[in-house]
User: Which sequence fits this backbone?
């Protein structure tokens, strides 16, 4: 992911989110399970846009109060999952959503699971297309309502 | 987290916590694979009743388990019954299975 230019501002993330959503809508109408991948990446860019605007990432103390591994630089996290490097634990978007944005953590994670299943597994499988759509709608509704913000 | 017995103990502990959190009666299968080289853990869950509501409940429980082991592994989840995960064949990886 780091080898390509990435969006680093709210507007660009939202433009990418809308583009992925529109692709997802078209694929869903065709009955193509890849709509789940598009919906997940639309949600990913919505969350990234929310993170860029979330004031918690302007405040070191607030970040540390939530989690010792959360920092102002977490705003620029790009990987889905964090890991362990020479400088200690890093957080991915999935972990940031789990810690900060509880109201969307189930739909967001399930969208990621659906996307992984389509790309690397045997298809949607255990997560139904109806659930994928409702999970995407839940994340989008929360974003549009301004609810994806740290408590 | 380098010693084999430590990895095995961690894998077992994650598995037991996950089974206890979700509840054995709600599970058909649960598998945990820990890769000590990147400190990752993958938890695959097959539910007795695979509904949206049960998935939601299981995920919330798994987030609690994720929090418990947050300093030790980076955890990911999947729904399914693939008890024999390819990642388990990595040298050094350890697997816990509940069925």
Assistant:
């Amino acid at each position: 992911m780091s080898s390509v230019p990435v969006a680093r501002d709210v507007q660009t993330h939202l433009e990418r989110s809308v583009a992925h959503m529109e692709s997802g809508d078209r694929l869903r109408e065709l009955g193509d399970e890849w709509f789940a991948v598009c919906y997940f990446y639309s949600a990913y860019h919505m969350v990234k846009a929310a993170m860029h605007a979330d004031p918690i990432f302007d405040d070191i103390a607030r970040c540390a109060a939530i989690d010792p591994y959360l920092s102002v630089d977490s705003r620029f996290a790009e990987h889905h999952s964090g890991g362990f490097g020479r400088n200690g634990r890093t957080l991915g978007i999935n972990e940031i959503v789990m810690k900060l944005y509880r109201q969307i953590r189930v739909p967001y994670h399930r969208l990621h699971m659906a996307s992984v299943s389509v790309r690397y597994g045997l298809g949607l499988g255990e997560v139904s297309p109806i659930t994928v759509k409702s999970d995407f709608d839940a994340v989008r509704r929360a974003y549009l309502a301004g609810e994806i913000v740290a408590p | 987290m380098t010693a084999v017995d430590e990895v095995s103990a961690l894998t077992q502990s994650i598995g037991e916590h996950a089974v206890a959190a979700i509840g054995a009666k709600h599970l058909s299968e649960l598998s945990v694979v820990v890769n000590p080289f990147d400190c990752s853990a993958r938890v695959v869950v097959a539910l007795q009743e695979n509904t949206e509501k049960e998935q939601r409940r299981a995920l919330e429980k798994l987030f609690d388990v994720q929090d418990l082991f947050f300093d030790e592994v980076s955890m990911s989840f999947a729904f399914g019954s693939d008890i024999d995960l390819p990642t388990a064949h990595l040298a050094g990886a350890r697997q816990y299975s509940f069925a």
Helices of chain B lie at 4-22, 52-68. Residues 4-98 of chain B form a domain with the Alpha-Beta Plaits fold (CATH 3.30.70). Chain B has a mean pLDDT of 88.
